[in-house]
Amino acid sequence: MAIRKIDIEVSGMTCASCSSRVERALNKTEGVINATVNLLAQKASIEFDEEKTNAEALVNTIKKSGYEVPMAKKVLLIDGMTCAACSTRVEKVLNRIEGVVKATVNLSTNKAVVEFPSGIIEDHVLIQVVEKAGFGAEIEVERDLDREKELREKEIKSLKTSFIISAILSLPLFSAMFFHMAGVDNILSNGWFQLILATPVQFIIGYRFYKGAYNSLRGGGANMDVLVSMGTSAAYFYSIYNLLTGVHEYYFEASAVIITLILLGKTFEAVAKGKTSEAIKKLMGLQPKTARVIRDNQEIEIPIEDLTIGDIVIVKPGERVPVDGIIVEGNSALDESMITGESIPIDKSVGDEVIGATINKFGLFKFQATKIGKDTVLSQIVKLVEDAQGSKAPVQRLADRISGIFVPIVVGIALLTFISFYFIKDFNTGLINAVAVLVIACPCALGLATPTAIMVGTGKGAENGILIKSGEHLERAHKIDTIIFDKTGTITKGQPEVTDILVFGDMDKKELLKIAASVEKASEHPLGQAIVQKAEQDLLAISTPEEFTAIPGKGLKASFEGKEILIGNRKLMLGNNISIEEEEEKLSKLEAQGKTAMLISVDERLSGIIAVADQIKETSLDAIKKLKNMGLEVYMITGDNERTAKTIAKEVGITNVLADVLPENKADAVERLKKEGKHVGMVGDGINDAPALAAADVGFAIGTGTDVAMEAADITLMRGDLEGVVTAIRLSHRTMKTIKENLFWAFFYNAIGIPFAALGLLNPMLAGAAMAFSSVSVVSNSLRLKKFK
């Protein structure tokens, strides 16, 4: 009997009967010795016999009981990966673990992200599996920028030192080759002297390659280190054989120079890889280290980690806001460009929200902390960008499949090259050409092609206020040919304003507005609130109605200062026998202009019309024009009637209008367009847009909208205008172009280089140089994305 005990998180339990139900189901499962479910902790503690059941079966039992097991996500820091074959190997062994739903490994960041039902796999199991495959692993804890920087600098320093020593020892060997070709003999041509110089390069400087190759082979795979150590060892040991047998043909310079050049390439690669994640480092570096708070009526400065929700924080001009909160005293203008990409400072006063890491430009203010630590907007953005950078785009699958079988194929080609030239020419030629094949082949470039571009692309997006959830969504965005915009709050501001006040009879405009505002004050309808705001702007004295009744779909009825007031649409007036025929023309004219007209009657007589309209955002027209110029088909979707919808659509240049669509039917409209073979993007901001955002190929949430919309979307635009949609799609096109360029050069390089080497047309040292710089060229090409405007 193999007894194991695990704690599994259970979500959805609301009462004791829920926990009892799960507990009963688990205890009935064969192999379970004892199961207890804690309702408060939302956790099931299970003791079971591994020979009779497993963690996955227990998760299924919980799900069959009607409850969910939330997914856990662990990030592993992997040590020892040198190329795509390594990352493919680690990914394969992690995905084989029982219970793992998905594991992805990123060669650029040296991280693995493992997803599994919460509680069923312990950290040490993940680490053991990776170590057994020949690599080091540790669980990533809270991100420590200084530690990361220190580790990266340590790696670069180690590579530089190794390269310099290797170069000093290899230079005489390289020079000896030219003296030998010129027929000049000196100390440099002496085999024993060459052996003394080559040995430290081969075994001390080159130890990293032997170690990597050993770990890889022990784990059942093969990587770049295997190719390098095989190729250089063949040249080195054959030179020793010739030295001992008296043959004056040495290849010490080949093995030493190859190692030197590869180290140079690795140094450049490490520096360049560090630059790919600069966007996250820049974001994380924005948050202040301390905050000035008021405690016990005293102003003190404390580390930001010690802040608690509810603390009153003081921010002086020129300082950064430490965390998220709401202003309780003072006013200012804040530069939010690091979050939204919008350079114009935003005016803030009492009651307004402030975001951590934004800059206070002018006045001193106090705010109450509402979100701290990992809950702040900045932390959420960093998390989102990190997740995106660690994800894989579908285009990477081909490269992953090839890199998984790459090394064995290259070893096979090298063996065939050696045998062919051995029989056609001689042993020496066969060996040198086989070494060239081993050294020219580079799975690194394949492995770095996609992740480096995605890291820079998503980072660049974050700098511009565009948060892309994953590499998959970034790839999908470039395929979009149709885009649907929700009207309210997306194309328009979502804040209706009074545009017209028409008065009939002997009442003046101010009197009519005062009556309407006083009645609407009791209403929560956005159109009513627009009337109240207009009255407040005109400094009118607003009262409260004596009686108030809302009539759904029609308007409202109230008593005010002894008068009977009705405010609403045609149906309300006609239902109360109030004639509107004389003013029908004026009413229709307002509606034709895309305005919502509200009829007002006082004591059963039509007294006026107040028209309200949702104003179009300043950038909507220009953004839609740009999208159409990019070849996209643009739609507008709204619950408004067709006449009003078409009027607004015409103002922004949209001809495809989906009007009278109820909130719950928006997702169906998206699905209909998808069935026509279109790749659909949906842009929205409200809760009612969430199903449509999820149904679209790519959902864009306007960040000024709700958290629900942002959660359902694939791409979140932190700014409230539509220019972000244009930028996101352009960034997607540019990133995909970079990925395709990278993959082309990685494939082209190997497709040309390996046959050239196999045909004996490439010197091993040139092969080593080309191999070393292939990865550098791929990473450098990805870094060009940083210039994206």
Task: Explain briefly what this protein structure is.
With 789 residues, the chain is an alpha+beta fold. The longest helix has 37 residues, at 145-181. The mean pLDDT is 84.
Tag the structure with descriptive keywords:
Calcium-transporting ATPase, cytoplasmic transduction domain A, six-stranded antiparallel beta sheet, Rossmann fold, alpha+beta, Alpha-Beta Plaits
Structural overview:
This protein is α+β, with helices and mostly antiparallel strands. Among the domains are: 3-64, Alpha-Beta Plaits (2-Layer Sandwich), CATH 3.30.70.100; 291-375, Distorted Sandwich (Calcium-transporting ATPase, cytoplasmic transduction domain A), CATH 2.70.150.10; 466-491 and 616-733, Rossmann fold, CATH 3.40.50; 496-615, Calcium-transporting ATPase, cytoplasmic domain N. The protein has 28 helices and 29 strands. It has a seven-stranded mixed β-sheet with strand order 17-29-28-27-18-25-26, sandwiched between helices. Strands 9-8-10-16-11-14 form a six-stranded antiparallel β-sheet, with no helix packed on it. Strands 19-24-23-22-21-20 form a six-stranded antiparallel β-sheet. Strand 23 and strand 24 (606-616) form a beta hairpin. Helix 7 packs across helix 8 (224-245) and helix 10 (278-284) packs parallel to helix 15 (443-463). The longest helix has 37 residues, at 145-181. It is elongated. The model has no long low-confidence stretch (mean pLDDT 84).
